[in-house]
Each structure stands twice: as structure tokens, then as C-alpha cells.
């Protein structure tokens, strides 16, 4: 009976979309994510933070990594709240750690990781043969 009740009170959704390495990609991805989160009825208390996390991860992939980049969203709803997991997988860094691409103003870049860490309940990085996946989870209670 408990397993049946848990199944009834828990639901999950998933969405995957490419992040093209072009100007204007981040706002387009952000709009798409906003529409997906609205369709899923994600708790309003985490939507804005989620959009900022998506923006930071997508920007990082476009500026610092090799294509392709793919964004994956997973929303697990549990009665009374839920967890949104944001994952962005790219083909790995274009430069060694600590080096920035030419023409990037350090006063305008470099805070994205700190923003993600501040907004996410949990976050991390997973290296694998296909590249790197950066992920963050935001929890609504």
C-alpha cells in the first residue's frame, strides 16, 4: 500500500534541448526552459533561480567549452514540493583550467559558478569520455 501511495504522490518530467554555440542562444534556451517549467507547473519559488542557473551553465558552455552542448531538465514532483535537476553536458573545455579565451573581460565573466553554487541546493561536476556534465538541483518544499 505504501508503494502505491508513493507512486501516486510522485511524478517526474524530463526535457532535453541542444544549446547551440551561437549569439542569442542563451536567451532562447532561457525562454524555452521558462515555457517547459510553466507546462510542468514547477513551484514558482524556484523558477527564477532555475532560469538563472540555466543561463549561467549555458553561457559557460558556449564561452568555455567545445560543442555540442545539451541541456537536460528533470522535475520530480512530490506532494508538497519537488526537485528540479538542471544538467548541461558539453564536449569539454577549450582551454586549460584557469585560462580565459582572448577578448573576455574578467570583470564581466567568472562569477557564474559562484552564482550556481549560491542558488542550488546541491551541485556538481561529472567528467566522462564524452565531455563534462555540470549539474545543479533546486528544491522546493
The percent range for helix content is 25-40%
| Count of DSSP-assigned helices | 4
Question: What is the structural class?
Answer: alpha+beta
User: Cα distance, first to last residue?
Assistant: 24 Å
Portion in strands: 25-35%
The chain-level mean pLDDT equals 87
The ordered H/E elements are HEHHEEHEE
Strand order of the largest sheet: 1-2-3-5-4
> Overall 3D geometry?
globular
Structure description:
By secondary structure, this protein is an alpha+beta fold. It is 37% helix and 33% strand. It contains four helices and five strands. The protein has helices at 2-9, 25-39, 44-64, 112-119, and strands spanning 10-19, 69-78, 81-90, 122-128, 131-140. A hairpin with a 2-residue loop joins strand 2 and strand 3. It is globular. Residues 4-8 have low confidence and may be disordered.
